[in-house]
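Risk mitigation, structural track. In case the binding assays with 6-O-phosphono-beta-D-fructofuranose fail to produce interpretable data, a predicted complex structure has been prepared as a fallback.
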Amino acid sequence: MERGFVGILTSGGDASGMNATIRAVTRSAICHGFKVKGIFRGYEGLINDEMKEMSTEDVSNIIQRGGTILKTARSKEFETSEGRKKAYEVMQKENISALVVIGGDGSLRGARTFAEEYDVTCIGLPGTIDNDLCGTDVTIGYDTALNTIVECVDKIRDTATSHERIFFVEVMGRDAGFLAQNSAIASGAEAAIIPEDQTDSDQLEEFISRGFRKTKNSSIVIVTESPNGKGATYYAERVMREYPQYDVRVTILGHLQRGGSPSANDRILASRLGYTAIQALLEGQRNVMVGIRNDEVVYVPFTEAIKKNKPIDKSLIAVLNELSI
Ligand code: F6P
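Fallback model:
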């Protein structure tokens, strides 16, 4: 059966496993008689008609590569109705009947608005290290970033122990604490300071009052980056001021968390979700994100997927606190 083109793009911050996702979508689409266009630089490339037809060979040898062969961007123009109009016109011109968008909440929010304004079919795939999309247990890239952080913290632990220091290690996540909370558990850190636990009680005070250093000669505190300036540096400066007896250092892991070869889990997730994106099109699904819940692939309406404040499992806080005594 002759089918139209499926357009694929990656948008927002890159995440390891995006290439594995592009490979899966491309190959499944071709298997089912679709033709595929790879769109460069996310929505920017859609607006500017930067794309090329993809063959199965074009996605050879990329499953193991970090970043995205399609490049990525955060498009300001696509946030405007004029930008989306241009994108729609390019889709018509290029005979793209469905768009597969791989990205985080900003990218899927863009897809939702686009699908509300125009009669287009969009399928979203959750690609972000932050793990902050609702309706899916995990996002593509999260596991790799988590493993990268743990590897770094293991190294920091060596020097922290040798010098008997407190290290505040800042990790990404924007306003979500999944990376901080779970990397703290996995690396045996003494505490995690996360946005979801910003109650009346001060997380630093709690950590101090739990008696860190009573029996240990070093501590590692993982802190989620903060748009309001309360990242690792803020907490380190407070300790220096309020508890000058301690020797404190800060490490900001930054963009190294986004790079590198995807973990096996991310490759498998990318392959399953990419394959299902095409199944979704065959079933006539529109404007849903393909996610995973309890190891089952699910369709999540965009509105649900982009809801703010995906809940973090609060029992993880107790796990960390109890195991770090
Ligand atoms: O959303 C992914 C992410 O890596 C966030 O964790 C981080 O806050 C942001 O992107 C950084 O964006 P940029 O690469 O534009 O500095």
